[in-house]
Amino acid sequence: MTTCIGQTIVLKGQLSAAEDIQIAGRVEGAIQLNGHVLTVQPTAQLTAEVLAKSVIVEGAIRGDIVAGQSVALQQTASVAGKIAAPRIAISDGANFNGRIETTRQAS
Known about the structure:
With 107 residues, the protein is mainly beta. Helices cover 0% and strands 70% of the residues. It is built from no helices and ten strands. The chain is globular. The protein starts with a strand and ends in a 5-residue tail after the last strand.
């Protein structure tokens, strides 16, 4: 199951879920998706600390990202902050300003 947070939604506070999430709107706060995937769509603007199994970024994130498996910055991504994950992929055209830390994959 995947939940979508639409383009016109503004969420302030802590977002916690036990399912995959797609965000197209604006989120300010903390996002915690233990064991699940966060997809940040091209229209999304996040000012958040992110903790998830995997993170796919097509939009903008200002804040740290910690993933148990992987982080993928697509061509349209813009990220400012630290990324920590076992696998990190940055596509040509993605904008990244911060620090990368490779970690061991969570068992």
